[in-house]
Amino acid sequence: MQYVSTRGHQPLGTFTDVLLSGLAPDGGLAMPERISTFSAAELERLRELPYVELAYEVMHPFISDIPEDDLRELLRRTYRAEVFGSEDITPLTALGDSGLYLLELSNGPSLAFKDMAMQFLGHAFEYVLEREDRRVNILGATSGDTGSAAEYAMLGKERVNVFMLSPQGRMSRFQQAQMYSLDEPNIFNIAVAGVFDDCQDLVKAVNADAEFKARYDIGAVNSINWGRVLAQAVYYFKGYFALNLPAGAEADFCVPSGNFGNVFAGYLAREMGLPVGRLIVASNENSVLHEFFSGGVYHVWPAERVAVTSSPSMDIGKASNFERFLYLMADADAGQVGTWWEEVAAGRPVDLRESAHWAAVQASGFAAGRSSHADRLATIRRVDTDFGRLIDPHTADGVLVGESFKRPGVPMVCLETALPAKFAETVREAVGREPARPARFAGIEERPRHFTELPNDAEALKAFIAEKLGEWAQ
Ligand SMILES: *Cc1c(COP(=O)(O)O)cnc(C)c1O
After folding, report:
1. Which residues does 227 contact at the CB level (< 8 Å), separation at least 6?
2. How many angstroms separate the CA atoms of 411 and 89, rounded?
3. Residue 309: CB within 6 Å of ligand 1?
4. In what residue span(s) does the Tryptophan synthase beta chain-like PALP domain sit (predicted)?
5. 114 C-beta closer than 6 A to ligand 1
6. Could you give all domains of the chain from N- to C-terminal order, each with its CATH number?
């Protein structure tokens, strides 16, 4: 399987080529040149498979350059009960007889769904770097969950260093502790005097310095990484099969969304033939995606319009994976995508209402809803009272919006994107008690903190990286 860019149809190579690179040279995102599909009979065969086998079946058509046995071994190493808490890996729980379900994606090392893909990336990076005798320095920015998921995935990986920028003092205490308590030779936490957008701009500035980037083998594991999207498609299959529906019957999914990576993986599963009826995008107050799906206009929100909310991992004004979706809506017309993204880059709206593309969007099964802080508190409280189940604020966004789109007779699977322990402040505000926390995180806030403070300055960041890497030569 070959990959192409959403903007220019440039060949980007095979899976392992796009795994280690970020944006395509023309600024677009990597997409497979076609999406393989399962027939109804093949889907029946997948129904009973354990997670690792299912992951293999879903992913291997897109991965032509890792031998079958090696890929199986990578997946076996990744999706283990010791790492994800159960043999099911992603258990499905019914919320009473409401027809709503929770697909548990957050029982991994960092307690958020990002582990599902990031753990795979950790093993896949190690494998590819070993094979090619290379090393990489991952430079990333996090507003909370990505950083800890990436660091836990790269712990002890000899060919990988992680430089992770975070906005100083702006993550939850628990999230800070998750990252800063790590005392590992290959992990560098950098607290930047600024906000998340500043961190992201610093990453961009370093990447824009082609010489520095090449000299220090700077890589990324951000939300546009194709390997993450592909690994995430697997649990839609797992969740669907766990419902035990008659062959061909539809299920709907509701996904708390920010960068559109998780829900796009659901769309990929639907395109592969999984009977997904509707895909519901749940936003918080930062409802740029809701604006698009309800009005047909995609207009990126400038940083100053993006509010700080109690579901902070969705505080995003620009959904970086959205380009992949519009590429498919335009029938892989990269010229069209290029034109749209010139508008996006200029801060102008992309208006699809009068075009044939809008009909494609409406046929795609997507819909969207949004919620407020008060909605989240009320939903956390109600799910606790009615179903005896404590959920986190992001998952609450999903349950609230999922409920509002529930169709009679069609199950609605709501994705649990984090555990409540990660966002104890909001959960306490909702139900008046502390959420349980896994024993390994007891007292984590009191542990010594390992991080470096840097000003919001790209030259200072480059100097720090250069100093840590010393004579870096492959
Ligand atoms: C990252 C994250 C999201 C948003 O996922 P996207 O793939 O960016 O849409 C939602 N909830 C939680 C808890 C997250 O960490």
Report:
1. 15, 18, 19, 117, 120, 121, 124
2. 21
3. no
4. 90-317
5. yes
6. 89-111+244-431 (3.40.50.1100)
